[in-house]
Each structure stands twice: as C-alpha cells, then as structure tokens.
Amino acid sequence: xxxxxxxxxxxxxxxxxxxxxxxxxxxxxxxxxxxxxxxxxxxxxxxxxxxxxxxxxxxxxxxxxxxxxxxxxxxxxxxxxxxxxxxxxxxxxxxxxxxxxxxxxxxxxxxxxxxxxxxxxxxxxxxxxxxxxxxxxxxxxxxxxxxxxxxxxxxxxxxxxxxxxxxxxxxxxxxxxxxxxxxxxxxxxxxxxxxxxxxxxxxxxxxxxxxxxxxxxxxxxxxxxxxxxxxxxxxxxxxxxxxxxxxxxxxxxxxxxxxxxxxx
Length: 264
Description:
This protein has 264 residues and is mainly β. The protein is 2% helix and 56% strand. The chain has one helix spanning 128-131, and strands at 26-32, 35-45, 50-57, 64-71, 74-81, 84-94, 97-103, 108-117, 141-151, 163-176, 180-189, 194-205, 208-214, 217-224, 227-233, 248-255. The longest helix is centred in the middle third of the chain and has 4 residues, at 128-131. Mean pLDDT is 90; it is low at 1-21.
C-alpha cells in the first residue's frame, strides 16, 4: 500500500493566512539518524494545523524549506530544496518531543527531535470538540470521531513504506418523541482499514438507547453533552462488520443535521 494513500485523502492545504510577526518562531533541535539538525518553524495557521519553516544540517549553510500539517498527535512534513521535494518526515508528538522517521523514495532514517523554545501552538490544531463547541445540546445531528497514527505496518528495511493512518468516522442520529433514535454509522478501524457500518432504530432503555442489530449483536448508545458513546456488543462477524472491525467510540457533535451515510 502506498505511503501516500491517506495523504490523498488529507491533502496538505497551506492557507494564505499564515501569521507572520505575531508568533515567536519555534526552535527545534535533534537528529535525522546520526546527523544533527536545527529546525525553525517561522509561520503557521493553527486553525488549519498547517505551518512552514526551514532546517539545516548542523554545520551546513544550505537550508531546506519545510511545509507541514498536524493531524492529532501526528505531524507530516514535506521538505524541498530549490523547489524540488527531497524527503518527508512522519512524526508523532509526545510533549516537547517529536519522534518518527524521515524517508525519500529509497532511504529512511530515524528522527528524534525536541522543541527548545517558541510557541508550541505553531504545530497544533484544534480538536473536534474545540472546533464545534458552539453547537446545541439537541441530540439530532451528525457526530464524528477521528484518530491518526503513523502506520508502518508495511514498512520494510529495503522498502521504506509509511503512511498517515486514520481511524474514525461518523455517527448520525435523529431523535423521535424522546424515546427513540434513528441512527446510521460508518467507522474505519485498525491499521488494515476494515469498516464497521450499520443503521437502524434504537429505543430508550434506562440511561441508554438499545438496538438489537442482529441476534448476537446489541448496539448501545449513550448521549451526553454533545457526545455520543456507541458500543456494539458482539464480534465483527456477529455485527456484520469487516474483519477485525468494531464499534466502541466516542463521537463529537459536528452538525445540527442528521446526514444519511450516502450523503457523506
């Protein structure tokens, strides 16, 4: 599977509204393999999670341009020199540390970086909850969940193959008479990307809504403060999901409108 599989879905879009002069440059130091580097993030659009800057190998004057985008705790960076792309970083952020891999079409090196100073928000992005905090507490609507990871499942030493992995999806609900919900969901699971898909009517039972989707698959839906917790009690086979797919997620409200799956 191409490492650009999910980059095709989440294309890097660099806004013209980068904030110049308002943010203190973010200074990052560390190494690509055994080679020490100095990196500087000079401008960013935190609302869209995009940024740009430069880096150089320590002791060398030539600077490479970088453009990056943030996906949860993952950071993707494309580097270029004199207008030609020369490599990519696939990084995961843990506090002030950025770890992962650098690679081009044939080589790869481990990357170990650390933020030294500057505005950490330059390489951040608002969560779903932050982006949609002004929506109402009405149950009817469309809810989403998203989780990103660096997927190296197909990585080989002689064929470096990495991609941005994505798990998540949507859960749409429409409330009827306060005691039932029409629902539809589609979620992608695991590094092998199998789908959990379903729809139906769930009925109020105590503090939850329940739907017997299949004989051996019970769906339980809990609603609280613009969030939905959905759990399918049953195996992927019992619930009619793809191999190793499951439903056990918290979804954040992103729309006031119930949107059927076919419209996504």
